[in-house]
Amino acid sequence: MDTKEGVACAAIALLEMSMGERFKSNGVTTEHRRGALKRVLGQRKCLRVMEAHSPISALLAENTQLLDENGESLAYDAFWSSSLTDSTERGKPDTEALDIQSRLLNINEIFDVTTRPLIMDGDTGGQPEHFAMNVRSLERIGVSAVIVEDKTGLKKNSLFGNEVPQSQESIDNFCHKIRLGKDAQITDEFMIIARVESLILEAGMDDALTRACAYVDAGADGIMIHSRRKTPEEVLEFAGEFKMRYPHVPLVCVPTSYAQIRFDELERAGFNIVIYANHMLRSSYLAMQQVAADILKHGRSFESEAKCLSISEILELIPGTH
Fold first, then answer.
1. What sections of the sequence does the record tag as coiled-coil (predicted)?
2. Which one from 94, 121, 123, 150 is the annotated catalytic residue?
């Protein structure tokens, strides 16, 4: 057996392990989970983060493991609680229509059955005083970080760009929001990450860098740079410039539109957190749509069985079911 065949067999063996054994969890305390993101950032150069909009999607993400061509284990380091997928899962628009308490209930249910740290999409953060109160709530239940974007007014999804009316908050006002959030923290473990929308709104690279530097100076624990372009050049340029100024400040990206770039390329460019922000929901939607249509088409479910997880696998997936 050659090396490639050996690695492939090892990967298959890992995937075919008893689901009950792979999904076993001893649980984790609130304090341990809250501090886990900072700890792992101190141990690894770059983290993989997967969107989770429900306990079952989080369980699947946490327990997906593969071996790479060098025999190294690959897994997701944390979850992303997306306002887009949380809203879509409930049939509501992605306009901050879903209140924070509803999202916290969902996160708490995810925490009941998983152990990974979680980063929350905080949208605009709302009014600064409300943001400060929400920081306390997130910190209390064990969320590790919140990412808050520098836009104002009724929230619109960033991938619309200037196709819809969107406005950026002033630097001074957004820095004030960051400071209030940091002042509200009880522990040193929680992180507030500032999301810069300058490239989304075509305000230019200089504006993006000016804002990022101001936000770090105001106390932000990290910076997320967002882009809706189909290629990664502008986020790579931003990473190079930002890391020359702040080499130790965590840098985050969400390669949704420029999906062709590989994780290791982003890692080499200086990114510390790569978020796959909506893929669990998008993939499940497509599967459900196909299965629903197939059952109507064939008048039975037989043709759809190959697209579905078996009942026995579902029963083994959930600890304590049998």
1. none
2. 94
